[in-house]
Give the backbone structure.
Amino acid sequence: MTDPGFGGDEVRTEQEIARWAEGVAAKAEKYREVSRQVADVTVDEASRDGLVRLSVNAAGALQHLDISERSRELSGAALAASIMTTMRRAQSRIAGRVAEIVAAAGVEEPGTADALV
């Protein structure tokens, strides 16, 4: 007796299952590679006046901060505003970098880049 869900041809069904499993494995490896690349994303940004340079990771967390000696001329509030503005600009570029990685990997499922950011 054959299972009607498999079309009745056991050999063909086994081949189809094997092809499907290979496809799933290939897709899983592609997603693992995309995930590794996204984890390595860093975005560098500098303030317009060059007083602040920083890097953020794929999650938007600050990884590096360099403040120029010239910043001593600024008030604390002005320096803080410059840091925050620069960090937000860097963070706003993360989604684009992730989208580039997803596109380069050939991932076609909609929303993948958004899910990774």
User: Anything to note?
Assistant: The chain has a mean pLDDT of 88. The first helix runs from residue 10 to 39. Helices lie at 10-39, 76-92, 94-105, 112-116.
